[in-house]
Amino acid sequence: IAGIVSNVKLLVIKANNSDNPLTEEDESDQFLESSIAEAIHYARTQGADIINMSLGTKSINTVTQSAVEQAIAEGIIIVGASGNDGDTSKYYPASYPGVISVASIDESLSMSSFSNFNDAVDITAPGSSIVSTSLNNGYATGSGTSFAAPQIAGVLALMKSHFITMTSDQIISQIMST
């Protein structure tokens, strides 16, 4: 699998609760807010320029919100998945101010039936039937705003690597206007 941009460093941080394996039924119980905030802090201290957060919950949490605000204040671009309820529900951290909230579109460029849409959503990206790696050296398709958000993070990384004099705010403004 090739990414959208080459010659960048990825810092993959596992923030889910390993004692409670991820299930499709209720993703919100899989992530401790303190772990998410710790992961944001760790990414910040390691020099991350962009943080993708393909996770979320319907509840606002001040610990995570504070970590997001601190990262944004330091010029880090935060991208979040808008959620997969197919309605106007808001998911956080995607719906926090300053976070680029990404909804999903399908092959026909229509909103994916599962994708959340609300006034906090900033942009859309392909998120239906996305081919990715799977266990045992295989490939599989998956759908969700968690597949759309990293595509926007990749485009932002490409822009950041090409437009080296632009600030994070200028890069965000550019992607939103085009």
Brief overview, please?
The chain has helices at 33-45, 62-73, 145-162, 168-177; strands spanning 50-53, 77-81, 100-105, 121-126, 130-134, 138-142. The protein is an alpha/beta fold and 178 residues long.
Can you describe what's shown?
The protein contains four helices and six strands. The protein is α/β, with parallel strands linked by helices and 178 residues long. It has a four-stranded parallel sheet with strand order 1-2-3-4, with helices on both faces. Strands 5-6 form a two-stranded antiparallel ribbon. It is globular. The protein starts with 32 loop residues before the first helix and ends with a helix.
Write the layout of secondary structure elements.
Elements lengths: L32 H13 L4 E4 L8 H12 L3 E5 L18 E6 L15 E6 L3 E5 L3 E5 L2 H18 L5 H10 L1
